[in-house]
Amino acid sequence: MSSKPVALTIAGSDSGGGAGIQADLKAMEA
After folding, report:
1. How far is CA 20 from CA 1, 8, 16, in A?
2. In the chain, how many domains are there?
């Protein structure tokens, strides 16, 4: 039985997509 990896991020939102939650999600997808 395999479990999914768990990641925790504490970040704000940046509408430019260069920082914050959007950048964290892109890094986690890699």
Report:
1. 33, 13, 9
2. 1
